[in-house]
Structure prediction request, 799 residues.
Amino acid sequence: MKDPQELIQSMAERRLPVRRPETNAASLPAISYVEREDVDELPLRDYWRAVLKHRWLIVGITLLVTMLTAIHMARKPDIYEAKARVQVDLENNPALGGGSKDGPIFINSGVPDPSYFSSQLQILTSSSLLQQVVNTLNLESDVAFLSPQKLSAWQNLLNMCGLGGKGTGPQSRDGEGEPFPSSIAPATPKDNLAEAKRLAPYVGILRGGLEVNRVKDTRHIDIRFKHLDPQVATKIVNTLAAVFVRSNMEIKTVASESAGDFLQKRIAELKQQIRGDEQRQADYARSNGIISLDAAENTVVARLSGLNNELLAAENDLKLAEAEYKVGLAPDAADVLATTNSTQTAAAEAQLASLRQRRAQLLAENTEEWWEVKEVSQQVAELEKQIKEARAKAMTTFKTNLTARYRKAQAREKALRESFNRQRSETVTQNVAAINYRIIQQEVDTKKSLLNGLLQRANENVIAIAGLTGTPNNIHVLDYALVPGNPVEPSRLPSVVTAFILSLAFGVGLALFLNYLDDSLHSTSEAEKILSLPVLGAIPLVGTSARRRLLPSIGALQKRNENEGNWPSPFLGNDDARSPLAEAYRHLRTSVLMSTAGHVPKTILVTSSQPAEGKTTTAVNTALALAQTGASVLIIDADMRHPCLNRIFDLNNDYGLSSYLLSGMGKAELFSLIEKKTRESGVHVLPAGPIPPNPAELLGSEQMRLLLEYAEPHYTHIIIDSPPISYFTDGVLLSLLVDGVLLVVHSSKSSREIVRHARNVLQDVGAKIFGVVLNGVKQNSQDYYYYSREKNVNHIPFI
Prediction:
């Protein structure tokens, strides 16, 4: 047995030239086709076709998800939310600070403390506050709180659609009620653990529906509570706000009382400290001799000042005496001082001068020896002696007096300096004592000032506690909650609309994804784009899928039509001439006749890429359509692996193509095997015959070539039905013997890769492909819009 590739090679080498008889179809223009590159991108219309193809999937997903969402949302009860708003100002307790002219003793910062507001939020959700709300509203036995009324799912659906009408909510059934508490229950003692445990479930319910938030950049706090009953939600929110304000008032009252006790205790302590400090001050003044710190009344300071003045005068006297003493030590200065200060010496000097003048007069007239001259000279000598002695005595006295005066000045200055130093030491000691004295005095004054402030705060606190001015509350309710008219949850209609949009988007996305995964060809444009071949015809898919399993023969259909009336057939001979099927095959016939330039095709191979794509049905109907023009048509069943023409035309398959190819019959024996169908005028059938062991070698033999050579002069057209290309080489071998090939592709079933592979195999061996027949096109497809008007047409089976 030869290899299929060897058979194909040998067939290609000895391929016969085809003889083309002249016909009036030579004037027909050939169908041209421009090769186009494969484009993977899907244009918008391809997306739209994908959506239309899976429209019921999209509708199903959308309806299912939307209905389930609507039912789920309808089963959810209505939840109402009540909201109250409180204002929290900064604390200003008069017991701890106030507006006195001296200023507060304890000053609160004016800058908002974030932790303060956080603490208030925690207080609002604290168990003690919520327990007080439970006791105030008696929620333990409140049926509306524990088991609120609910609307049915059907009523919720009607309300969501706007058909529920008025007066169907809990508010209208229960009445308005009183949204404010008449009185507030006392707080539960913190040490009462049993009570706290008993109320814990109700506190948990309240905390679960409670939401407190601070309004940004304000001192406001929003209190929200969600419940199935709007009146219950309103009562709880308003009660919680009132309890919060009341609790803050109680806390401040307790703080005021505690502050009063603290103030009294502190006042007593300050008084005791002041008395002790004053006694210590007195003892210190007495021990340090402090009479008064006033400079005018301080004798120590006055004495120091007097000694200082005297010391300055003594220092001046000492300097003067010292200067005079130093001047008196000079010799000439001592003579001048002695002469100036002695009156006796002055008189003697005057007398001496007179005597000297007398002596001079006497000498002018007499000599030295004159007695009168001698006497005067003697007197002069005596006076000179007396003056000299007087001067010496005066000088001695002068020096003695200077020395004594200088000594006295020294002694006085020294004594004053010693007294001044002693007094200064005493004054310094007294100053140090005065400093300590003033420190003690300052402590006493500070404590007295503090005592006065505390006494004032204590009086204000007493007045506040007594209720004369009232304790200022920095928390008050800004807005009480009103009974809500509409629920805040669940958002049924938006949720259903969102579910509809999302499910629709999901359905569309799933459709596009399935279309992306779908490797089949759906339309003529896809076939032309993927295969780069013209689509010669689009055969419709009509009828029910139940008949897809049945393939009646033409003879059986004839009998059924005779017994039961006109029964639609997959073959043209038994169908209405105006049916979509007939129109489609007439269109295919025209395309085939115009597929070659200058002549009509003589031998045509009908094949497919894989089984069950309708190649046999297409071959039979193409032959019948050609026969309707008056042409003589031979259809050969070359699918010897799975022959079908004998069943379709109700023929005996004991002899046929395989018999001719195996036995080496001549031309006469060949025509004896061909049978003509009388009902289908002009159609002759050569069945496959017995199934041989080697169909590919038989179809690729010289005998097969001779068969076509013998048959061509006697028939206008020869249609050959061959096995699928992708599975067997039979069709490839036959494609080398014919004028052209019709490649049948099943819409929405044939794989692109398999069909492209079949095309490539045919093109690789040099076969001429007339085009593609797109079989099984749905009526709603745009490729078959013309035939969608026909109704109630049965399905055409594919073989």
In short: Residues 371-465 form the longest helix (95 residues). The mean pLDDT is 77.
